[in-house]
Write a structure and sequence with these properties.
alpha/beta; Rossmann fold; Alpha-Beta Plaits; 3 domains; 15 strands; 41% helix; elongated; disordered N terminus
Length: 433
C-alpha cells in the first residue's frame, strides 16, 4: 500500500473552525462522533474563530503556535481538522506540529477503511483513499523529489515520487476495472429481479439514523447495527414478504453525511446504484435529532448527485421511543398516498404501518375480482390458496371454482402464464369484476 493508515487509540487534538459560511460550516458534535467512530482518543477540542482562512495554514500563525504547545503538552500523535485541507496546508501544519495531520475527508476515509468487510467494499475504499492520497505523496518522499546529478547518482530518468505516482495510476485503473465488473454484475441481478416482477426497496438516510436496526426488524436479519457513524458500509439485500403485494427486495445501504467527500461518492457508485435503481426509497430520518431538517437536505443532495433524486420516496421517522406524546402513524398527502411513517425500529413499534405503506405505494395495480377456474386447473387453484390471496370460494353450475381473490396483478399474471395462458386472454374469458 502506498499510504499509511493510523490505528485506533491515538491521542488526538481536534480543531474546529467557527464563523464560516453556514453552507460549509461543520457540526462540532458530529465531528467528535466521527473521531470516536475512528477509535481516536480526544485530548482536546479547539474552536478556532476564522472568517478568512489562510492559504498557508488555514488558521492563523498565532493559533498554530498555540496548537504546537498543546500538542507537546498532551503528547498528541495526531491533529484532526474538521475541514478540508489542501495538500500544501497539510504539509505545512505537519512541519509545524511535528506530528501527523489529517482533515475531515481523511478521517471519513479511515472510518470506511475500518468498516469495509467485503472484497467489493475494500476495493471501493482503497480507490477513494488512493485518489485522495495521490496529491499528498510528496509528504513521504521529500528527500526524493529531485534527481541528483554527478557520477554514480544519475537515475533511470524517473524520480521515486514519479514512480509512485505511476504505480498509483496503474492500481487505480485496476480497481476501476474490477468495480466496473461488480457494477455490471449488480445490473444483471437487477434485470433478473425486474424480469421476475420483484419490486426493490432501498433504505437511505443520514448516518446513524437507524437504517440497519430497521432493516433487521423488518427482515429478521442480523446485520451489524451500532450507535455509531457509518456502522454499515457494505450493502445487504434481503427478501421481504408483504401482505397484498408478495415479495420485495430490501437493500440496506451506506449512510450519508454532510459534505460527503466527492471521491467517496464516485468510488461507491456501484453500491449507491442500488438506491438509484430502486422502485421505492425509504428515507430513514432520526426523529429525535435537533438538526434533522439539515440532515434531510444533505441526504436529498447526495441522492441528486447519484441520480436518485426523482425516485419515489417514503419518509420514515425513526426513534419514536425517544419522543414523548407522538404515536406511531401514517401521514398521507392530499391524494391519500402514504407520505411519512412514524415508528420505532428498536422497539418494533409501527412496523406494521410501514409494511402497509410500502404495499400501498408499490401495489397500485392490485387485482380484486372473481376468477372462474375449470376443474382441470386444480393446481392453479391450490397455488392461489397457498399464497393466501383467496377471500372466498364458490362453485358454478358446471362445478368450476369461483375464487374471490385480492393480489398484485403482476403476481396474477405470473401464475396464469405458468399454465400456458396469455394473462389478458385468460382474464377476459374467466374473470368477473
Amino acid at each position: 500500500m502506498f499510504f499509511e493508515r493510523h490505528q485506533g487509540g491515538e491521542r488526538a487534538i481536534l480543531v474546529h473552525l467557527e464563523g464560516q459560511d453556514p453552507e460549509v460550516r461543520e457540526d462540532p458534535q458530529e465531528f467528535q462522533e466521527l473521531v470516536a467512530s475512528a477509535g481516536a482518543e480526544t485530548m482536546a477540542l479547539v474552536n478556532v474563530p476564522r472568517h478568512r482562512p489562510s492559504a498557508k495554514f488555514l488558521i492563523g500563525s498565532g493559533k498554530v503556535d498555540e496548537l504546537c504547545d498543546l500538542v507537546k503538552a498532551e503528547q498528541a500523535e495526531l491533529v484532526i481538522f474538521n475541514h478540508v485541507l489542501t495538500p500544501s496546508q497539510e504539509r505545512n501544519l505537519e512541519r509545524a506540529f511535528e506530528c501527523r495531520v489529517i482533515d475531515r475527508t481523511g478521517l471519513i476515509l479511515d472510518i470506511f477503511a475500518q468498516r469495509a468487510r467485503t472484497h467489493e467494499g475494500k476495493l471501493q475504499v482503497e480507490l477513494a483513499q488512493l485518489e485522495h492520497m495521490s496529491t499528498r505523496l510528496v509528504r513521504g518522499w521529500t528527500h526524493l523529489e529531485r534527481q541528483k546529478g554527478g557520477i554514480g547518482l544519475r537515475g533511470p530518468g524517473e524520480t521515486q515520487l514519479e514512480t509512485d505516482r505511476r504505480l498509483l495510476r496503474v492500481r487505480i485503473r485496476q480497481i476501476r476495472q474490477r468495480l466496473e465488473k461488480v457494477r455490471s454484475q449488480r445490473e444483471q441481478a437487477r434485470r433478473g429481479r425486474k424480469r421476475a416482477d420483484i419490486p426493490s426497496v432501498s433504505l437511505v438516510g443520514y448516518t446513524n439514523a437507524g437504517k440497519s436496526t430497521l432493516f433487521n426488524a423488518l427482515t429478521a436479519s442480523e446485520v451489524y447495527a451500532a450507535d455509531q457513524l457509518f456502522a454499515t458500509l457494505d450493502p445487504t439485500l434481503r427478501r421481504l414478504e408483504l401482505d397484498d403485494l408478495g415479495p420485495v427486495v430490501l437493500a440496506d445501504t451506506v449512510g450519508f453525511i454532510r459534505h460527503l467527500p466527492h471521491k467517496l461518492v464516485e468510488a461507491f457508485r456501484a453500491t449507491l446504484e442500488e438506491s438509484s435503481n430502486a422502485d421505492l426509497l425509504l428515507h430513514v430520518i432520526d426523529a429525535h435529532e435537533p438538526e434533522r431538517d439539515q440532515q434531510i437536505e444533505q441526504v436529498l443532495a447526495v441522492l441528486d448527485e447519484i441520480g436518485a433524486g426523482e425516485q419515489p420516496q417514503l419518509e420514515v421517522y425513526n426513534k419514536l421511543d425517544l419522543l414523548e406524546g407522538v404515536e406511531p402513524q401514517i401521514q398521507r398527502d392530499a391524494e391519500g398516498r402514504p407520505q411519512r411513517v412514524w415508528l420505532s425500529a428498536r422497539d418494533g413499534v409501527g412496523l406494521d404501518l410501514l409494511r402497509q405503506a410500502i404495499a400501498e405505494l408499490l401495489g397500485d395495480d392490485i387485482f380484486i375480482g372473481t376468477l372462474c377456474l375449470p376443474q382441470r386447473l386444480g393446481r392453479l387453484r391450490a397455488q392461489f390458496f397457498a399464497l393466501g390471496v383467496v377471500q372466498s370460494e364458490g362453485h358454478d353450475e358446471d362445478g368450476d371454482s369461483l375464487l374471490s381473490v385480492r393480489l398484485p396483478r403482476v403476481e396474477l399474471n405470473r401464475l396464469v402464464s405458468r399454465e400456458g395462458w396469455q394473462p389478458a386472454e385468460f382474464l377476459e374469458q374467466h374473470t368477473l369484476q
